[in-house]
Write a structure and sequence with these properties.
The protein is an alpha/beta fold and about 450 residues long. It has 17 helices and eight strands. Helix content is about 50%, strand content about 10%. Strand 1, helix 2 and strand 2 form a beta-alpha-beta unit. The protein is globular, with a radius of gyration of 21 Å. It binds iron/sulfur cluster.
Length: about 450
Amino acid sequence: MEYTTAKFTKDMKRTHTILVPNMAPLQFKLMKAAMEREGYRVELLGNCGEQVAQLGLKYVHNDTCYPALLVIGQFLDALNSGRYDLDHTALLITQTGGGCRASNYIHLLRKALYKAGYKQVPVASLNFSGLEKDSGFQMTLPLARMLIAAVLYGDLLMALRNQTAPYENEKGAAAALTDKWIAALSRQFHAGKGYSAPEMKRTFPVIAKEFAAIPKTHTPKVKVGVVGEIYVKYSPLGNNNLEEFLASQDCEVNLPGLLGFVQYCCFNMSETVRLYGGSKLEELAPELLLRWLDGLEKALCGALKDAGYHAPAPFSVLRTLPDGIIGMGNKMGEGWLLTAEMIELVQSGYENIVCAQPFGCLPNHICGKGMVGKIRALYPQANITPIDYDPSATRVNQENRIKLMLAVGRERLESGGAAVPHEENPFYGQAPQISSAAPV
Ligand code: SF4
């Protein structure tokens, strides 16, 4: 049966407010500004609560991935709230364009809207893969450049805030500076400025220096990395406010940035041609884009390092880390990137890792949870806890499991066996040395 809902037309840009699920809070606030610059009226959704998952369960098959269930539930909850003029409201959902189910959430959403009686609410797609060609919401070059800038600035602010807040002398200083920069960058985006490569390269060090100037006292903390399926990794709705919980446990949190996922998607396009064939152009075009992104990443990491902060390994290193553990052909969902991020975190001294896994997600159970044994065999100091997120999992249960992991981390910290900072780690940035005797 065809579940037909309204199409998002070009005219709706002026007449409709577009609701967007807030996946990565910092990056998405800047993406909102980028879309507003292009003339869209955008609102990031912050509604949460038990009813969101329940609505998702009511209108989506319960075998569906948890992120789809939550995003669809959140949209329906917003439409039910009475806050929006339903004839002038549209929804925006991301499509990765990869082989995984995330490319098809849009059809599940339309079906749910149809069944819930919201046939007049159009759905637009945010994608870089040329999907939904007949939609009035199209990716233009300026919008794409501004969205990428939003990812880079958001990643930088996230890294600086997370490495400053646990040590700041005045509580809330890092959060206030983050808000200040989000507002300043949003203003720049609205004016069509701040998103070119030279502007970003000039602004990154300015931001980093301001964070470095916040008075801090460096007392040893348990360092925790967070990896996982992209939605539950970043979204406070998806992971029950994981970052906030870890901060409340006196940890320093490291969430690998969203840029890595963008680079991974680019790399995979060329890798598909190398593995399965295709034209030279199909292989080369994403490689050129990747090279451009690598240049911006270098500027971002340089700004972090120059200001005295930890910078993540560049993508060119990241993609070599899973050598001998998992093949580059594992590119459904977060695929090999998830394994690479865990190795990079362990090598960087963030040995305590939460691996966030949604219910219904097969690829990430293979590349995340499924790789934990191998990583532990190669890096015995790795203290990784896979946490499942699904409608029936209780927050208390999830937090108790994380507390157990933190207890091990704290014990190591107190006994002096804590992480070696990555700069002093002789194996930093190297693929693990796998001998035939290694129990992998
Ligand atoms: S990565 Fe996992 S959660 Fe995401 S679409 Fe694929 S199966 Fe679903």
